[in-house]
Design brief:
Number of helices: 24
Bound molecules: nicotinamide-adenine-dinucleotide, zinc ion
Helix content: 25-40%
CATH architecture of the largest domain: 2-Layer Sandwich
Shape: globular
Strand content: 15-25%
CATH class of the largest domain: Alpha Beta
Radius of gyration: 29 Å
């Protein structure tokens, strides 16, 4: 390959990885691999400057903006940081700084590098008016309503001496506990889990539904302050100032004088950072004086006065002792590697503690599916390499085949039968996972389905969470969701069980006292009022997620109609494809499922959509179209929509020349407003709208 082709290949690859990372919140390779590719490209470009492409990933901030939010131009560009994984390069950075400052004395501030997404917040007269993502560095997504869900972020600054307009920046992140909770939930719902808290934070800050963002427990650390006229003299002053004004500044920062002290800080935090409640991937070193920052300036992509040092994910050898197989709610079989430290090779497995990796002991790593096992070429007894990606989920990255001579291995044979119920496993064409087809009797599938049934987004029986289902299932009291509706106080009172968490080895005692029983039964009774679309989702039909369930409920209006629908009738529904139609038809053809639905119906659960045809209050908005944007004082958005519809109007999603009214609430994006003005659309305030419909 000639250098030109090499460069083109690297550019294509990096652009693809950037797109996946910023747009889809997926990391196809580790950050380290990504950074190595970027470094290779940079070296080639330095060697052949003529071949450098104008929009090379080495010159541009990698992020993008989306179409889902208003686009906002940054007042000051939001750049990336130069990074390094080694000490020599850090010393080279220090040399460049010294030269750049012509021998003036300087100081550094060391901070932790939080692993989340960059956010910018604008305050006017002390009030938070805008929250924006970094986007491509020049323009970002306006996500004000979502950032307002961060509890630690002041919506109004109480201090007196704040400048009239200022911008602060920080890292929005998802604390590790929120991340674990979210992933457990995704797992119950059969949705894809996030690989690490960064991807989870990025996805959650960009949700359309701020309520859901709020539930996900995001947080933010602030680390930068910007104004048109200088307010603070140094980064240190600004951090202290922000703290005094009530902003959440991470306490981990330190002022130092030399690069050796920077290295000390790096070593000090290498292990300590793993005890923090959030993910960090390195440290950031910044020149303290703002004047010196200005002297050093910026490249197209990053400041010359700062650099980040990233810790390499710890990678250690371990022994693959055995592989166990987990069966999920949908019957998918996931192989799990059971590992021990190389010093524990001879110990019985129940005595091993596991490999010490990034602050914890690791005994298990998911192998995802049979293809992954093949790809790695694993054998039982192999010496493998384990790494924690995003510092959270351990994974096997390779095999040390040279060890096989000394420590003989046995072939790893994927089971042909379900480890839980002995049914023969199957594999659908085009899918990587093997699954157990015995969905009506395989225990983890039954239990998984009940857990799905009670989920907040399904029947919402929260009082049955945390091990209670497990108890009821193990005692044979509840084998299908319908059994829940036969429970009585007498059967429940006094039940007890110790539940062992295999991961932590901790035992949790669950016992049903009077209050618990009352809560459980109340929760179950209340679930009878949950709307039909949730009931449909709660059944856990393959490929029928919450959104599909909603569409089906709106279309068929009742369980009976849906149950009797043929394949052809099903695919005639907008947005319902062959795969979903097939799955629904086959679900209702199974006698156990028919029985379940009949019992649920008898128990009094909603089997019909109660969406009443809209009864008109007036027809005064007949033929008029509206777009609703922003936040309102007297209405939730849905109520407003209803108000418009019951008066004969229609609500659209986008501003166009044909639109009659833009109903503008507080905090609506300036670009939408601008567009409406340009197109001559009438802009209504909440009061004006109210006056309009009250005049009828
Ligand atoms: N794995 C992949 O496929 C893939 C793809 C694209 C990018 N990436 C990773 O993302 C990196 C590029 O992302 P980036 O441009 O956000 O750079 P970066 O994450 O290396 O560093 C810049 C960012 O650090 C954050 N930050 C955290 N703590 C900070 C602090 N105390 N002070 C200042 N900033 C702080 C800010 O959000 C800032 O924008 C790549 O180097 C790579 O590691 C990975
Ligand atoms: Zn099974």
């Amino acid at each position: 390959m000639n250098p030109e082709q090499q460069i083109q290949e690297l550019v294509d690859k990096l652009q693809h990885l950037n797109y996946r990372y910023y747009q889809d919140n997926v990391s196809e390779v580790s950050d380290f691999e990504f950074d190595q590719l970027l470094k290779q490209l940079k070296e080639l470009e330095d060697q052949y400057p003529d071949l450098r492409q104008e929009d090379s990933p080495t010159l541009r901030v990698g992020g993008t903006i989306t179409k889902n939010f208003n686009t906002v131009y940054h007042r000051y560009p939001m750049l990336s940081l130069d990074n390094t994984y080694n000490e020599q390069e850090l010393r080279n950075f220090d040399d460049r700084v010294r030269r750049g400052l012509d021998g003036e004395p300087y100081e550094y501030i060391c901070e932790l590098k939080f692993d989340g997404i960059s956010l910018s917040f604008t305050y006017e007269n002390g009030v938070l008016v805008r929250g924006v993502t970094r986007g491509d560095g020049t323009r970002g997504d306006e996500i004000t309503n979502n950032v307002k869900t961060i509890r630690s972020l002041p919506l109004r600054v109480k201090a007196e001496n704040v400048p009239p307009v200022f911008e602060i920046r920080g890292e929005g992140f998802m604390p590790i506990t929120s991340f674990q909770k979210l992933n457990e939930e995704m797992d119950t719902l059969g949705e894809n889990q996030y690989a690490n808290p960064r991807n989870a934070a990025s996805g959650s800050f960009k949700l359309q539904d701020s309520g859901e963002t709020a539930r996900r427990g995001l947080d933010c650390y602030l680390y930068s302050f910007l104004t048109d006229t200088e307010f603070f003299k140094s980064h240190e002053e600004s951090l202290l100032g922000l703290k005094a004004w009530g902003f959440n500044v991470s306490p981990g920062w330190k002022k130092v004088q030399t690069i050796d002290e920077v290295l000390e800080f790096i070593h000090e935090w290498e292990e300590k950072r793993l005890t923090l409640p959030l993910a960090t991937d390195g440290i950031v070193v910044k020149i303290n004086s703002f004047e010196q920052q200005r002297e050093l300036g910026f490249t197209a992509k990053s400041p010359r006065w700062a650099i980040s040092f990233k810790y390499k994910a710890e990678n250690k050898p371990a022994v693959l002792r055995m592989v166990t197989y987990q069966v999920g709610r949908t019957g998918a079989v996931t192989p799990v590697a059971n590992l021990c430290d190389i010093s524990e090779r001879a110990l019985p497995y129940n005595q091993v503690k596991g490999v010490h990796l990034s602050g914890t002991r690791v005994k298990r790593a998911t192998l995802h599916n049979a293809n992954e096992v093949l790809r790695l070429g694993l054998e039982i007894g192999d010496t493998v390499f384990v790494e924690k990606s995003g510092e959270i989920i351990p994974k096997i990255t390779g095999v040390d085949i040279s060890q096989r001579e000394k420590y003989p291995t046995e072939p790893l044979i994927f089971p042909t039968h379900c480890p839980e119920c002995s049914s023969e496993l199957q594999r659908n064409e085009g899918e990587v996972a093997f699954f157990c087809p015995n969905d009506s009797h395989c225990p983890p599938q039954l239990k998984g389905r009940i857990e799905h049934f009670i989920h907040r987004k399904a029947m919402n029986i929260e009082s049955l969470g945390e091990g209670k289902i497990e108890l009821l299932f193990d005692l044979d009291l509840v084998r299908t969701p319908a059994d829940l509706y036969d429970l009585t106080p007498e059967t429940l009172l006094g039940l007890e069980k110790n539940i062992l968490n295999e991961e932590t080895g901790k035992v949790k005692k669950i016992s049903f006292r009077e209050k618990t029983v009352e809560n459980i039964l109340n929760g179950i009774a209340l679930s009878k009022t949950v709307p039909f679309k949730n009931v449909l989702f709660a059944l856990g039909i393959r490929f029928v997620g919450a959104t599909v369930a909603e569409k089906l409920a709106a279309y068929f209006k009742s369980m009976n109609a849906l149950r009797l629908a043929t394949y052809d009738q099903l695919i005639a529904v907008p947005e319902i494809g062959g795969r979903i139609a097939e799955s629904i038809a086959s679900y209702f053809s199974v006698p156990e499922n028919q029985q379940l639905v009949a019992r649920l119906q008898a128990a009094g659960i909603q089997m019909e959509s109660d969406e009443k045809p809209v009864e008109l209050e007036s027809d005064m908005l007949e033929g008029k179209t509206f777009v609703i944007s922003g936040v309102f004082e007297n209405f939730e958005r849905d109520d407003l929509k209803l108000k418009i519809e019951v008066n004969g109007g229609r609500v659209l999603s986008g501003v166009s020349g044909k639109l009659n009214y833009l109903l503008a609430g507080a905090n609506m994006g300036p670009s939408k407003l601008e567009k409406a003005r340009k197109l001559g659309v009438t802009i209504l305030s909440e009061e004006e709208f109210l006056a309009m419909i009250e005049n009828k």
